[in-house]
Amino acid sequence: MGRPDDGVLSGAGTLSQRDREVRDAVRAVVAESVAPAAAEVDARSRFPEAGYRALARAGLAGLLVPEAEGGSGDSTPAYVAAMEEIAAACASTSTVYMTQMHCAYPILLAGDEAQRRRFLPALCDGGAYGALAVTEAEAGSDVASLRTTARRDGDAYVLDGAKSFITTGDRADVVVVFATVDRDAGRDGITAFLVERGTPGFASGKVLGKLGMRGSSTAELFFEDCRIPAANRLGAEREGWELSMRSVVKSRLSAAAQGVGIARAAWERARDWAHARGLTRGSRGAAQDTQFALADMHARVSASRALLHDTAALVDASETDPVAAVAEAKLWCTDTAMAVATDAVDLLGEDGDLAEHAVERCLRDAKVTQIYDGTNQIQRLLIARELRPA
Asked: Is a pLDDT exceeding 80 seen at residue 1?
């Protein structure tokens, strides 16, 4: 593969000097410890522990967590730039990486001092794996309809129910679980809890086979008379809905960054394949068709990266969460991943179906980014609400 696309034409200059330093540090670790194993991680559905731990050892796994809590206290633009680098090499590793942050972020937002001190450093340094458990069989993007219950019993809560499609759920040491204390109250009954592995009544199911992101494990979680201390409630009762909505700002930006990284990888691999075969030489005919296809793909990647960085900067600058702007970034960047990966497969022809060229992996990995962290149909609804006349 040729040199990484630095986004020279794409507005990457909006990153600060520190943001670029973080990106470059991540890029170096990825080149040494993530990219070489990516094909095997995918082919064998192997959890990318070595790659993730290399990032954690380098102090790059807790970017959004303040230094006092065990992280590095970096910006959201630095985080999405890091996510792009990881996803461009191995989308499975990027999913593990972002899930650590998706677990840490609600603890950072709503955790008390004891909870933050207990869980955040380990989530940042690779000492513990985390998961975020929202999705259920009948409650995917519609968080308000979840059915897992939490019943207060003295100095504890008892959880009953099941969660599905939980990333890193099979090995998480701590899971942020959203449950309801009052099913009739809808969103107003939702409450968040910290459930630790080994708690009686808490179990994970088998790891699910998937189209893409094969190295990132995904499992069902089961809670049956699962008794947890009241001290493990995250925030106040009935405030889980607001916490979940604040948390998805970061998770949707993670998916958007994955989209940019996957699209970039598909473009780079298609570019290198075409140049190696001399298919871009000349100024007319088939050569020009190939040049035009590569130019269109790069333009989409560049536009998506610019939107991603601008939205990440807006998140840090805004007093309230820019929900519609984040939805637009998630929608556009993940749709771009699917479109560019499809174009790359088409450009390679029969070679596009071969694992050795890795564009088919980009296509498989891209699909789920349009689905998780709120389907892109949900993102369209969120955007449309902002477009109504005053």
From this structure: no
The residue written with tokens 């808490």 in the block is 202
Please, are residues 330 and 376 in contact by the beta-carbon 8 Å criterion?
A: yes
Residue 7 has pLDDT above 60, yes or no: no
Residues of the chain with CATH 2.40.110.10: 130-238
Domain 130-238 coded CATH 3.40.50.880: no
Q: pLDDT of 163-209, one tens digit each? A: 999 999 999 999 999 999 999 999 999 999 999 999 999 999 999 99
pLDDT at 11 over 50: no
The two tokens of residue 215 are 């190295």
Rounded-to-integer distance, Cα 39 and Cα 42, Å: 5
CB neighbour class for 159 (10 Å; exposed up to 12, middle 13-18, buried from 19): buried
The 10 Å CB-count burial string (b at 16+, else e) for 260-298 is bbbbbbbbbbbbebbeeeebbeeeeeeeeebbebbeebb
Closest CA to 89 of 77, 79, 97: 97
Chain-wide mean pLDDT for the chain?
94
| Cα separation, 161 vs 179, whole angstroms | 9
Do residues 228 and 195 touch, judged by C-beta distance below 8 A?
Answer: yes
The reported pTM is: 0.95
CATH 1.10.540.10 in the chain is located at: 12-125
Fold of 241-386: Butyryl-CoA Dehydrogenase, subunit A; domain 3 (1.20.140)
Question: Which CATH number applies to 12-125: 1.10.540.10, 1.10.1370.40, 1.10.287.130, 1.25.40.20?
Answer: 1.10.540.10
Give 136's DSSP letter. B
3-class DSSP state of 65: coil
pLDDT in tens, 32-65: 999 999 999 999 999 999 999 999 999 999 999 9
Report, as an integer, the average pLDDT of 365-370. Answer: 98
- Strand 130-133 vs strand 149-153: parallel, antiparallel, or unpaired? unpaired
Q: β-pairing, 218-229 with 156-167?
A: antiparallel
